[in-house]
Design a protein that fits this description.
Blueprint lengths: L2 E8 L2 H10 L15 E10 L1 H11 L11 E7 L7 E6 L3 H16 L6
Length: 115
């Protein structure tokens, strides 16, 4: 069975709560439950069960320092028509970028090309 994979960082509860409050201004929108809100670092795509286990094991070794993230701007896509995804931007955070690079490098070593 294939799995659709991405790497992400869990958000602190106060950030989830703040983002959840933004939903009040857009009627008829379907919102992701606050406990599922996350910060996507890389999108891997569809992989089979064996690849999933290999990826999980390879990425389990990667860690980064605690860091402070600052929200900066919100937007949506697609840019035309009914918005399907709302996003919140972040100020540049070098430790976060370093973590993303570690993950991307490891995925390339496994023969994957994440987005």
């Amino acid at each position: 069975m294939n799995k659709r994979l991405f790497t992400a960082v869990d958000l602190p509860q106060d950030v989830r709560d703040h983002l959840a409050q933004l939903c009040c201004g857009l009627p008829n929108a379907r919102w992701t439950p606050p406990e599922q809100l996350h910060l996507t670092l890389t999108f891997i795509g569809e992989v089979d069960g064996a690849a999933y286990l290999e990826i999980r094991e390879a990425l389990a070794e990667i860690s980064g320092p605690a860091m402070t993230l600052q929200l900066q701007g919100v937007g949506f896509f697609p840019p035309r028509g009914q918005p399907r995804i709302v996003w919140a931007g972040l100020e540049k955070c070098e430790p976060l970028l370093a973590l993303q690079r570690k993950i991307t490098t490891r995925l390339f070593q496994l023969g994957l090309e994440p987005d």
